[in-house]
Backbone:
């Protein structure tokens, strides 16, 4: 049958492999009948969201019959104030994933290419392929470099030409946790031609403490082709509600808004995000506990003789020095969900989200047991 629905799909869609989310706790409970399960697989905040955000979400539940504010006026005002930009420079998304999709829709065509690194965030190839644009994947930094498997900006630069309409840069990157220094990233931006849009994905921005980690916001005026994306899903602990946004030139924001669904961010999400922005203390605590958790996990891996990729985000990527899939499966049976990342081209590595001290301990004990079984 040559008229199967599959053969009718757009060529890019036929080649897509759907995004693989972290395994939900409820699914593992059903499968194994286990009650005590910890999920360290999706880089969620183990300390949850701000109580202020929860209260705001509850209050917003009073108004479910009404459409949300399609322009997100209040949230954009608050973001504009916080980031010292104009409201017209902000685009709200149903998670920052949504923004990445909007960029693809607005700027990519089958005649154009998107450039990104090997081992970069899985959504970049998805967005590119869905549109049938060409994927140009730059080789990553060497395994023995200071940023193992991280973005190699020189290699990325080499793939940019007149056809390359979008370049995706994650800082820090997921699943490697590696990051780019201000000087290097600035030099890269200087070299990118004006006709190439740079998406600087800062999903883990709030967690990074390095002195020379750049805040992409500062370059918006100098580079009208720059789009900085942020999210409420990670440090703000609002992954369930799906809110992200971009900062860009007003011209780019206008284009992204043309392809956006009119009510892409619901009113509960808008209210919670607005309240979360006010709770700096919750972010500060989350960052502090994350730093301690990273130290705990890193030290334990060292003791166990396991290689890690030095991370500045809220996850750590660990080389289990054997196929990671069976290790992942064995950890599931211990009630611990982590993320195998063979689909990112790292088949002997597991990515673990930094949890609470107790969750980290539970993970480390399970890992120890599984590796020595
Ligand atoms: C988690 C993540 C995102 C976005 O998640 P949303 O929940 O859609 O905001 C974006 N980029 C990277 C690199 C991520 O890890």
Residues:
């Amino acid at each position: 049958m040559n008229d199967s629905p599959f053969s009718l799909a757009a060529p890019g869609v036929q080649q897509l492999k759907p995004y693989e989310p972290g395994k939900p706790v409820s699914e593992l409970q059903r499968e194994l009948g286990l009650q005590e399960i910890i999920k360290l697989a999706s880089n969620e905040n183990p300390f949850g969201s701000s109580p202020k955000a929860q209260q705001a979400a509850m209050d917003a539940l009073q108004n479910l019959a009404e459409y949300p504010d399609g322009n997100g006026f209040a949230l954009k005002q608050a973001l504009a104030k916080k980031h010292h930009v104009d409201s017209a420079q902000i685009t709200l998304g149903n998670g920052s994933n949504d923004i990445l999709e909007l960029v693809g829709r607005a700027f990519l065509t089958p005649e154009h290419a998107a450039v990104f690194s090997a081992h970069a965030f899985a959504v970049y190839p998805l967005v590119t392929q869905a549109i049938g644009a060409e994927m140009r994947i730059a080789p990553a930094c060497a395994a023995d470099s200071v940023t193992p498997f991280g973005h190699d900006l020189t290699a990325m630069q080499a793939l940019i030409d007149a056809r390359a309409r979008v370049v995706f840069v994650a800082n820090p990157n997921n699943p490697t946790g590696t990051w780019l220094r201000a000087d290097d990233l600035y030099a890269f931006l200087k070299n990118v031609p004006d006709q190439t849009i740079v998406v600087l994905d800062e999903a883990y921005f709030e967690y990074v403490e390095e002195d020379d980690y750049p805040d992409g916001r500062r370059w918006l005026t100098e580079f009208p082709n720059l789009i900085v994306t942020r999210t409420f899903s990670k440090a703000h602990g609002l992954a369930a509600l799906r809110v992200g946004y971009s900062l860009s030139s007003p011209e780019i924001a206008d284009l992204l808004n043309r392809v956006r669904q009119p009510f892409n961010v619901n009113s509960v999400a808008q209210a919670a995000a607005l309240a979360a922005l006010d709770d700096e203390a919750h972010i500060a605590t989350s960052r502090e506990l994350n730093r301690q958790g990273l130290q705990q996990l890193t030290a334990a891996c060292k003791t166990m003789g396991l290689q890690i990729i030095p991370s500045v985000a809220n996850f750590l990527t660990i080389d289990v020095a054997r196929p990671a899939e069976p290790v992942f499966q064995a950890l599931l049976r211990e009630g611990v969900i982590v993320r195998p990342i063979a689909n990112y081209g790292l088949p002997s590595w597991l990515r673990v989200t930094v949890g609470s001290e107790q969750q980290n301990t539970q993970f480390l004990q399970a890992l120890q047991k599984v590796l020595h079984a």
